[in-house]
Amino acid sequence: MPTNPLFFGADWNPEQWPEHVRDTDLALMREARVTAATVGVFSWSRLEPSPGVYDFGWLDRVLDGLHEHGIGAVLATPTASPPPWFTQAHPGALAKRRDGVRLVHGSRDTYCVNAPAYRAASLRIATVLAERYARHPAVRLWHVHNEYGTWCFCDHCARAFRTWLRERHGTVAKLNDAWTADFWSQRYTDWAQVLPPRATQYLGNPAHELDYRRFLSDSMLAAYAEQRDAIKAVAPDAQVTTNFVLGGWVPVDHARWSREVDLVAIDHYPSSLDGTPAQSAFAADAARGWSAAAGHDGTWLLMEHAPAHVTENGVQRRKPPGMLARIALAHLARGSQGAMYFQWRASAGGAEQWHTAIVGHPGPDIRVYREFRALGETLAGEGRAPSYRSAYNKVPFPTGEAGSPAAGVGRGEVAVWFDEVCGWAVGASHLPAPLDYQGVVESWHRALWRRGYPIDVVPPTAALAEYRVLVVPAAYLLTDESVRRLDNYVQAGGHLVVTYLSGIVDEHLRVRTGGYPGALRELLGIRVEEFDPLPPGAVVTLDTGDLAAGWTEHLTAPGVEVLARYPDGRQAVTRREHGAGTAYYVSCALDDAATARLLDGICAATGTVPILPHLPDGVEAVRTPDGVWLFNHTDEPHTIAGRLLAQGTAAGLAAA
Amino acid sequence: MPTNPLFFGADWNPEQWPEHVRDTDLALMREARVTAATVGVFSWSRLEPSPGVYDFGWLDRVLDGLHEHGIGAVLATPTASPPPWFTQAHPGALAKRRDGVRLVHGSRDTYCVNAPAYRAASLRIATVLAERYARHPAVRLWHVHNEYGTWCFCDHCARAFRTWLRERHGTVAKLNDAWTADFWSQRYTDWAQVLPPRATQYLGNPAHELDYRRFLSDSMLAAYAEQRDAIKAVAPDAQVTTNFVLGGWVPVDHARWSREVDLVAIDHYPSSLDGTPAQSAFAADAARGWSAAAGHDGTWLLMEHAPAHVTENGVQRRKPPGMLARIALAHLARGSQGAMYFQWRASAGGAEQWHTAIVGHPGPDIRVYREFRALGETLAGEGRAPSYRSAYNKVPFPTGEAGSPAAGVGRGEVAVWFDEVCGWAVGASHLPAPLDYQGVVESWHRALWRRGYPIDVVPPTAALAEYRVLVVPAAYLLTDESVRRLDNYVQAGGHLVVTYLSGIVDEHLRVRTGGYPGALRELLGIRVEEFDPLPPGAVVTLDTGDLAAGWTEHLTAPGVEVLARYPDGRQAVTRREHGAGTAYYVSCALDDAATARLLDGICAATGTVPILPHLPDGVEAVRTPDGVWLFNHTDEPHTIAGRLLAQGTAAGLAAA
Amino acid sequence: MPTNPLFFGADWNPEQWPEHVRDTDLALMREARVTAATVGVFSWSRLEPSPGVYDFGWLDRVLDGLHEHGIGAVLATPTASPPPWFTQAHPGALAKRRDGVRLVHGSRDTYCVNAPAYRAASLRIATVLAERYARHPAVRLWHVHNEYGTWCFCDHCARAFRTWLRERHGTVAKLNDAWTADFWSQRYTDWAQVLPPRATQYLGNPAHELDYRRFLSDSMLAAYAEQRDAIKAVAPDAQVTTNFVLGGWVPVDHARWSREVDLVAIDHYPSSLDGTPAQSAFAADAARGWSAAAGHDGTWLLMEHAPAHVTENGVQRRKPPGMLARIALAHLARGSQGAMYFQWRASAGGAEQWHTAIVGHPGPDIRVYREFRALGETLAGEGRAPSYRSAYNKVPFPTGEAGSPAAGVGRGEVAVWFDEVCGWAVGASHLPAPLDYQGVVESWHRALWRRGYPIDVVPPTAALAEYRVLVVPAAYLLTDESVRRLDNYVQAGGHLVVTYLSGIVDEHLRVRTGGYPGALRELLGIRVEEFDPLPPGAVVTLDTGDLAAGWTEHLTAPGVEVLARYPDGRQAVTRREHGAGTAYYVSCALDDAATARLLDGICAATGTVPILPHLPDGVEAVRTPDGVWLFNHTDEPHTIAGRLLAQGTAAGLAAA
């Protein structure tokens, strides 16, 4: 078991290779200062070749080998892909699409999470694994399943959904009320009439769809918890987690799940090469926010990211030299307990044979491996990157206070509100214009990130009081509890920035009537009469010179300060003092520059300044407990605070 | 019961709200001079909470409330959405897609119109409603179902289709002949072999598909007639209709259906904001044409349109100030018996919660309600719009002679042929190039509309004799009867303009051979040898300077006058005298300007002039019995006939 | 039976017309010098109106009529479309899609090739036809089925697939190894667990998918062979073939099938009008390559092409005057035994009523028929096209040596490697960037074709030794046998040009590790470390000035000659001497001009010159046994070797 607490390594599947490759891999890992390897993911058909018949020999040797080389194991339960024998024995336990098509094996995630046979088989293999390996000295962390997020609409789900709804709503009458079932004659009179939101003639009921996503999240969480509890029953001290996969299509409420894991762990796959630094910062800030709000200390773990590419519109863009270390270090600076990759050795066959790896198909004699090894040396304090090594090693790993957003790991002064359930609400609704919820949230985060402010991304349950500025972008769904917390925040002196399409519906997607945004009208001192979404390409110039596109509104704001107006004089951006704080409303979709200008003004008014002043675009500063870390994401050198930072590199400054 | 015959109001769903909202709504309606409210649509699950158990209390109160406030009721049967208990009891009565997927409840239109259980349940609820309310003093019009148009491909439909085919074709041998079943070995030997056009490997048989759409239209018409007859059995004087929804995807032959309703009623949802005036004119002219051809007097009713938005490529474009009244009045000028909206009060939840309403989520204190109320005052003769008020009130509502195209409501001098069955034929066929049938028809209508000609849109069964000019665009399918009528029209002195792809196939989609257009070759004096569709972007300049794109042809026209030629000298546009009239042929897709120039020439030659000369683009003139009404659809003022017309407004002139 | 060995004619379906049309058609065919007509395709419902009940009268009269007019018959078995009674009797014998949807009749290809009932019915009708007509004097060639290529995923296929896999792989353990089944836990323990690659949650296994395409090809080949053998059992001298349809979506390995036919026959439908000459040349060269490699003499037959149009993005572009003859003659020059069209007489109804025909809907008095008749006269040696008539008739039809690529029909000096199975491999894989395999192959062929080199397109089994230059574009999958053959080719003095993404995986889609391209690393003397696909629109300029886009690589090539470098100095194009030959590697996707420049250099170095020097772009030269044939595909005249060649025409030169 390594003494270095950092997780540095990758997913490793030695079962796909002859035995001698395993030994080669272990030597290479040692050479690269690997501290942890994730094993066992997708190995069910190896571990249990037929029902109840186990083959642990190979995994014994893998774990022993890791231990002998001083490498910790992140041991996965293999339940994300039942073997073909499972389908054969339980064809009814596979998932169905909305249209009733049964999805068979031949890929991954081929199960219905609510099928009793699947749950029983999963629990059994997890239990057997725990019994065998819970005390194995290599095992450092348990990794239940993989990237929960599979949809299903089958009859098992229908039954479980009804039970879940009964618990949530109590009576059919309350369900009808919550779902506005009078619309289109959808009033239920018997729980048995309720179905998953399967294929239907025309638009579905948004409340029905939203509850189904909540139900799927809870179903998967129950499946996770079952395995976690089985492991802890054998080894109460075991650390257990699962790897979160981000994306609007995943019906998993990660803020809620974070309370059920011992360490928040995320996989991160950006969608564009140029967007990778900003997207990575957002994901890391979100993971830290989940961790803190769930009562952990704000630290978390980057469980997977790609070594050498970013898939952009179907093309694997190659990460240029230096980017491997730079992105890994940026995650560490934001509180990750390590940098884990998918995957160690590129598979020769299978669906993901072209996913990049530390050891590619050509073997270890490739740039990626060399960069990875150099990063390992750096992280082990032996490396050739002295500029941030000392700072980094001074405090082995930052820790924060439990329950507060990772104060110790670069506690921000500005927070961005991010609620995945709100994203589902948006996705389930038929809005006046298309809205990319997470895209809007990320655009506000990016504006702050570019200007170098210390930022957190926080879920609705986060402690808000210590932030000077809180930005709430497009929070379409706000619960009564959230509304109260936001009001308290401002009353107590907080500076709240709310954008269009926030506070519109309650938790059941019912519009809060009386004038938009129903939940925040009083707090903001405004009343929106009409939405006025713009067609693609149309732009409006405000009296400030700022540009808006996509979304505008018609509002009244008697007695409230107006910061920007539409061409016809109507209010576009407003400011109201409330209690000891202020509440801003932004009724349109500002472009990036305008967003940045607005935020600069608001932050300046609250005494919030960038971590370092006058940073060039593309140079990132992150405040860590042992000083400021710098990342030059550009293609040219920059001198920051007197230090020359070569293109594509990272460096640390003495604590500010 | 109001004395004002106009229908002015909206769909109203008080059952979605607490009782006190109903009273608020009634007061607001009275304030806005509402004369009619559509109630009961989609209320089945409220009216019959479980099979055979009824709850009429709420509807009693709604109808009584309307009556007390002097507002008429358009009372709907709720059969467009069976309640969830219906699915539970009759899962086999729900629709199936082409691929066999059963579509479940959770939306609207969740039924198979040919399922006996659905028909029985529908007839029962309609009968019970009629028995209870047929003599209620508020009930002014019955509104059966809602927007018929649901497809289904299930076994109920298969059986009904066979019966329908047997009646239509008589024998399997005749079916094989009509469907050209020898192609691809589709010869039937037993009625039992015939299926709906379900999912298949490759291209389907166009004749099969076309007959299926006819069959669906007739199936739905039978379902409508059943309910209508049940209502009339109780109250023989009841006025009964259903609201037509327009669109190429709807398998409903509205010309045929118009004979079965007491008042032609349409819903109209344009597809672009800028295109709304022209699209509204087309829809209104088509409704008037259906009414007249079906033996009514040419009047009709705009049963639904959106108060405040036009959905354009997924974005709700906001109707600017003034447009609400302007578009409503334009419909009235074209013979609508009123202006009804969907909907009165915006739903807080449900799939269409974001559809705009007279009373929006903010309540009545919004621009839309204020504009609606002002329109109500105007229509009631009390309003602040004196410019057309006097003219409007002089003749409370225009009436025409039964059987002729609404002569009294602005009888046109130019007619445009529009046959929805032809549109289905085009949609079912695999043409040499894509063709948007209705788009082509609308482009010819729009060209005439822009130039200010008095236009009607007429189905094939219309009385043609009184039109000076008849335009037949892309009438791909012409029956023998239509061919004879067109010939008679010209013989008797009519001026016929036929475009490319007209008269190509018979009623069974069999090409009329011997040279295109087989049905009209002799009448036009031409023979088309080859089609020559152009790729997107390609343009041909005729010797007249006119531009053609999309479609050209190679034809011979010995001894016929040539009005325009292709660059290589071939004939593009021809003119032939025949009997007392003339027949023009346009072999290519002219651009808008060229179409207008051509029509100007033809109209001038027949003595047909615009309603007012020299109208600016975007200013519309409609001839009504009490004078010409003007509509300024532009963003600037215009002076017309000495009267200043502000931007976005409407006005009336003294009878010309 | 005509003495002219050429096949000149079309698909003919007199069963769709009254009897008198048949006589008209025969007279017209005679007038146009037609030598062959394909009959019986899709006539099953006429031939066997109900199970076991036959009606041969009409076909007797058709064949007798052809014979009386001296026209040969290409007699088809009708098994591509079972009649509706077949569905009625055997609903389980129709194909299922991946998602389990059963596809019904109403189109063509409505069967599962592995359904016993379908196979039995097919064999029976083929046998009965053979017994009746095998000795009919008109029958010149048997045409089994039509355009094999239908996918199915049903349980019949599942069973047959398992049998096929067992024969291919022997044991489940070997299957797991071949399919890399450890990835995502897909390890099988029982053959019964193996399914077709049906709908699944996420990415499928490429090896599974590839084997399924191979299996479908073999299934269809078995069905073909069954019918062929039944015919030969009756008439051992019968010539039997089927018409290949080309396209990446067709799971038919035409190189393999070519060994099972007596004459390779293809249908050819280009995808763009301007691209038709190059696409036709490629298809013809591929057909000749299949013929030669399969042990035939390199001749083949163009069984179908469209008389008057090319469908381009859904628009039927009209072939301009002259193109009908020009394209037919270009096929003949490349070894086709004739020029057959789909179809003779345009169907009045049915799905393909708008497919162009020799006798269109207007009848024979159309340009297409006149051009066809003129071509017939030319081919019969009577025509008005003396420029190539003499040369053409001098050698009635070119013949080559069996087993070598059609030496007698314009044996090329440059070969382009084309392997449809490789295309399936690419289509089944999830590559680092999208790759259009056939598009890349065609781009190399087109570069050579434009420059006028004598080219063959060869499958992996071709005799390679006699080619001076062999281009292997994007040969992602290379078997061990192919690798050995390529090495031998170079050793023996060949000049091999290999592009990026060649030699990457073995026959089971397992990456050959150790550095790309694993199969050819040593031969080429290079080692690729990383792929670097470029995003759309990005371009790299090599030090030669050549442009690359789409794909680049990072490679090392110690001691190997470098022909072009990337901007950072890395090797882009290399050359290595090996044995008596040389091996070039092109690591990027060059644009057309750069490809041509590179090939010019390589050809020049091997003494390979264009057929005629300095041909203008769009003028094509084909070397035939009786001289060079010229085709002017441009819109202007060109003088070639002293002869004036009008726009759009073809001509022959004396043997070079």
UniProtKB/TrEMBL annotation, chains A, B, C:
Xref: CDD domains: A4_beta-galactosidase_middle_domain
* Keyword set includes Translocase: no
Catalytic activity, EC: 3.2.1.23
Q: From the UniProt record, list the reaction(s) this protein catalyses.
A: Hydrolysis of terminal non-reducing beta-D-galactose residues in beta-D-galactosides
Going by the entry's taxonomy, the superkingdom of the source organism is recorded as: Bacteria
Q: Where is the Beta-galactosidase trimerisation domain?
A: 413-604
Q: Which Pfam families does the UniProt record give?
A: Glyco_hydro_42, Glyco_hydro_42M
Q: Ranges for the Glycoside hydrolase family 42 N-terminal domain?
A: 11-379
InterPro entries for this protein:
Beta_galactosidase_Trimer (IPR013738), Class_I_gatase-like (IPR029062), GH (IPR017853), Glyco_hydro_42 (IPR003476), Glyco_hydro_42_N (IPR013529)
* UniProt-recorded name of the protein: Beta-galactosidase
Q: Which organism is it from?
A: Catellatospora aurea
